[in-house]
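User: For documentation purposes, I need each entry recorded in a consistent format: the amino acid sequence on its own, followed directly by the corresponding structure tokens. There are two entries in this batch. Please keep commentary to a minimum and don't merge the entries.

Assistant: Recorded as requested. Entry 1:
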Amino acid sequence: MMGGLNTLPAALAAHLAISAAALALALLVAAPLVLLMPGRPWLRRGVMGVASVVQTVPALALLALFFPLLVLVRNATGLPVPSLGLLPSLLALALYALLPLLRGGAGGLAAIPDGVREAARAIGMTASQRLFHVELSLAAPVVFGGLRTAAVWTIGAATLATMVGQPSLGDLIFAGLQLQDWRQVLLGCAAAAGLALVVDAALGQCEAGIARRRWPPALAGLAPVSYTHLTLPTNREV
């Protein structure tokens, strides 16, 4: 058990780092797609369909699938593409986080009454002003609901990144299973659950601050992440 406690801080930092990086990558992909969806039902159906299919694949299978894919890319291009460790974990977790982000963003924008948009257009607001000053403010609760769901899912799935060589809290869980040290297994599970609860509460604080248009409380919600030293250590790469 002492070994588990000694390795907990490093495993916790690595877990938070890979989860945050995957969530950031998913946001970079989801945000422009969500902004392009209004007025394009064919795009929404196609993107949501693909994201839904990805979500049906078990997280461990998705992680494992990237090993042969990255090996093929490395052999085809000659580039030093790692097939274990950070890269497959980052890509798989980002894909897994896409569906709740897309649903939250698209659902939030779709729920805005047409009358609100017409009123904003009538007072001379440009498309970008309507988006950032009206639509996103009204859609914020639904958007943040999707973000919070994606964050919790990503933190939970990141425990499986251990299986492809990426350090995480899964190191404690799988090491405990191999050693039949159930206290270490519980320590890893409790740490992952606690991290998910803290991140969810922090995002909830951000959501409340944005809804009230009070930026100090919104920024304070990021304090648990802002003051954490994020690193992305890797074990080995093939």
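Entry 2:
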Amino acid sequence: LQSKSLGRGKPLVLLHGFPFSSQMWKDLQPPPGFRLILPDFPGFGSSALPPEKIDFKALSFALEAHLGSLGLSQVPLTLGGISMGGYWAFEFARLFPGRLERLILISTRAGIDQPQARQKRLSMAEGVVKEGMGPYVAGMVPGLLSQTTLTTRPQVVQQVSQWVAGAPPQAVALAQTVMADRRDQTDLLAKIQTPTLILAGQEDALIPNSESKAMAQLIPGCELKILGGVGHLIPVEDAGSFQAILNQL
């Protein structure tokens, strides 16, 4: 794994969503007293494609090794993940519960895909290698953004469209396969001892707010914030509000 690192202080690790790279956090500044660490999922950004099949368990061990290489093997972390990054954060929390000072789950879910959704992932994994990202952009972008963003923030729509179009097909195929085969983390929720914050967009077309609320009720002492005017990509659609939330950590 490779990551970008900004600022100094306690580590705040943020895991990006699909099909983006750590570039999706580009508007973010390190909150006061934190060192921001922004890993790239294998094949995206600066992280190379792995030579063999991986899963979120292998990725979590790879993240722990990467943090060790940054001199952070014993240091308590704040770990956040959005969407796909949330699936990764769940698995890390399962394997390394003692490492976490705080957990931030953004636009994500603990459960696995319904059979139809899983099949859609595997079909895209196959198709994108043959056809590239072009055929998928128009279908993906509206689901990632709120109606508010789609109608009032053209520069965000353009940026997200560019990122989706530029996503590396082999990395997209890998990520879809890893997500399709992920573990159901529902049983983990009640066992999470780490202070947890869930962020959801009020207009998220991919994960209903009801799911985020149900998840928050299962995690002991969890805080839930639902942000108005945004969809699935909270940090991109409303970077200011996201920054303000992190600044209060």
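Summary note for entry 2:
The longest helix spans residues 115-131.
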